[in-house]
């Protein structure tokens, strides 16, 4: 694994569950992230989990994009190769 992947993984490790779910929703709803996973299915699972945990999420989907850390991680992952994006996606899914 490369240093930049390790850095992103360390950021994800330090996130709370709500931020991880917000990252997952942003990750799997983005057309700029190319993974081999069923993005729609994973998006729906994370969306439902977040709705059950965070009642304010139901009111405002845009709250995901107001999170600076989530957007920073997303911008870095967009620069990765497809293989690197897949490794980050696997890590994120396994941590939720």
Description:
With 96 residues, the chain is an all-alpha fold. It has one domain. The chain has 6 helices and no strands. The longest helix is centred in the middle third of the chain and has 15 residues, at 39-53. The chain is globular, with a radius of gyration of 12 Å. The two termini are 21 Å apart.
Short note summarizing the structure:
The chain is mainly α and 96 residues long. It is 72% helix and 0% strand.
Radius of gyration: 12 Å
Category from helices, strands and their pairing: mainly alpha
Strand content: under 5%
Proportion in helices: over 70%
- The total number of structural domains is 1
Unreliable spans:
none
The number of helices is 6
Shape: globular
Measure the end-to-end span: 21 Å
Strand element count: 0
Quaternary state, please?
Answer: single chain
What is the string of SSEs from the N terminus onward? HHHHHH
Q: Let me know the largest β-sheet.
A: none
User: Mean pLDDT score, rounded?
Assistant: 82
What's the SSE blueprint?
Blueprint: H1 3-13, H2 17-29, H3 39-53, H4 55-59, H5 68-78, H6 82-95
Helix pairs in contact: 1-5, 1-6, 2-3, 2-5
Key structural traits:
single chain, 96 residues, mainly alpha, 72% helix, 0% strand, globular
């Amino acid at each position: 694994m490369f240093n930049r992947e390790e850095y992103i993984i360390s950021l994800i490790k330090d996130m709370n569950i709500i931020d991880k779910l917000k990252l997952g929703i942003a990750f799997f709803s983005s057309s700029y992230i190319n993974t081999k996973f069923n993005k729609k299915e994973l998006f729906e699972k994370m969306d439902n989990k977040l709705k059950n945990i965070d009642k304010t999420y139901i009111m405002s989907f845009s709250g995901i994009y107001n999170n600076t850390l989530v957007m920073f991680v997303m911008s870095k992952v967009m620069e990765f190769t497809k293989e690197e994006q897949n490794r980050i996606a696997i890590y994120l899914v396994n941590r939720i």
